[in-house]
Structures are given as structure tokens and as C-alpha cells.
Amino acid sequence: MSKEILVADHVTKVYGIETKNPVTALSDVSLTMYEGDFICVMGPSGSGKSTFINNLSTIDVPTKGKVFINGKEVRTMGENEVGRFRYENLGFIFQEFNLLDSLTIFENIAVPLSLSNISSDEIKERILTVAKRLNVEFLLEKYPYECSGGQRQRAAIARALVTKPKLIVADEPTGNLDSAHSHELLELFKSLNDNDGVSILMVTHDSMIASYSQKLLYIKDGKIAETIERGDLSQKEYFYKIVDVNSVESQKLFVD
Ligand code: ADP
Ligand code: MG
């Protein structure tokens, strides 16, 4: 039995709870994620996908319910402990890249390692290795504003991976990548998942990208409406199932 890495226990998130028009973005959602899981989240725009992964990964705090990471309730951890935990375990890839414009790509990728006591030689080596894997090694001396959207996204992914996280949390990581780079990234994720036991929780709107995962959660109106497991299906069969769910769910949007 694999270890539970992330547990969401009846998690609800309400935005603007003190206002006249509160929005329930996430409604009583539970999930147990085991070490080595590769889970994909899909659903219509505004259905709560980003809220879901943010609340599960210490980026945001639920209004109700509990989140446990490695068996520990996040709410009971102090700010330093959460920070340390993030640094040691999590690799975030956001929709916006959050690269610092005053730093070169090399320096940006180095940022998460600045907290560590890794030697500067090893930092350099790690950055070169990850930059090669993401095809940004020729951009290391450039600044973010000198790079294209796809290049910045790849640099942000390199920054997320340079700490060798145990759990990758990614919100539309291929949103700005061309199809060749998208598939390269997913092959890299798959290899990290298969060979290094890295767990992955990823939002995408692309069924093809989702077909690299082992499990799909379809979110609608802040709830998990469908769960599909890849099981013994080939990637192609799993892909067809994902397309079906998206198609059926989209068609329901036209029925009252
Ligand atoms: P998705 O990622 O699926 O597009 P989100 O999780 O971003 O959806 O948003 C879910 C719902 O919560 C939407 O109705 C959105 O408008 C609302 N929402 C998201 N973030 C905020 C916020 N900071 N304040 C108020 N409402 C928000
Ligand atoms: Mg989103």
C-alpha cells in the first residue's frame, strides 16, 4: 500500500464570504492522493480547478475542511514549517510564470535553491541539467522579457523542478507551449513519475495532455463530477474515455 501524500477531507472554499455575493468555488471535495499518483484535473472554465489545486497544495487556505500533507494537517503547521515543507517537497508551475524580470533565466531557476545549503558548484550543475531537459540552456543569460511566452514557461518549469520536488503541482503547464514542447514536457513528467516516483497533480484543458495521467478528475461547479482511472487502458483508449467525458459534460451545459 503506497503512502498517502495528500489528503483533502471535505474541503470547501468560499470567496468573499464577508460580502453580499459570496462565491462557493469549491464545495465539500475530498481526495486521497498516494505517493506516485499522477492525477489530472479537467473541467469548464470557472469550475474551480485552480481553487482546487491551490487549496490542496498550501497556496490557499480552505474555508471549511482539512488538508493533510504527509499525514500532517496544514492548518496546524506554522508559517515557517509550511515554507520549509513547500521548499522540500513541492514544485509549483502556475498559469502566470512569476519569473522575476530583474533576474536572468539562470538566476530565476536558482531562486528556490537560495534557501538550501547546496554548494554553488552543485547549484550550477543542477541548473544546467534541468535547463537542458527543458530546452532553455541557450537562454540562461537572458532576461525573461527577452524570451517568448513558451520559453518563459519552460524556464518556470525548470525553476519548479530544480529542487527535485516529490510532488509537482501544475496549473495548465502547457498553456503557452507549442504541441512539440507540450508532449516533451509530458514525457518528462511521465518519466519523473515512472522512474523517480514523483507525484503529479495537474490541471489541463487538453485531453491529449490529460491522457498521460493515471487518473482524471472532472470538476464541475466546484465538485468532482467524474473520476476516471486509466487502469489497464492504453493511452489511446484512456484518451478516448477522457474525450467522451468532456464531450458528454459539455453537452449537458446546453440542457436546463
Ligand atoms: P478554474 O480554474 O476552473 O477556471 P477558478 O478556481 O479559478 O476556476 O475559479 C472558480 C470560481 O471562483 C469562479 O467563479 C471564479 O470567478 C471564482 N474565484 C476564483 N478566485 C477568486 C477570488 N480570488 N475572489 C473571488 N472569486 C474568485
Ligand atoms: Mg484556472
Automatic annotation (TrEMBL):
Source taxon at top rank: Bacteria
SUPFAM superfamilies hit by this protein: P-loop containing nucleoside triphosphate hydrolases
Keywords of the record: ATP-binding, Nucleotide-binding, Transport
GO MF, any single term: ATP binding
Pfam families the record matches: ABC_tran (PF00005)
GO CC annotation: membrane protein complex
Domain ABC transporter: 6-246
Keyword Hydrolase applies: no
Keyword S-adenosyl-L-methionine included in the entry's annotation: no
Family label: Belongs to the ABC transporter superfamily.
Protein name (record): Putative ABC transport system ATP-binding protein
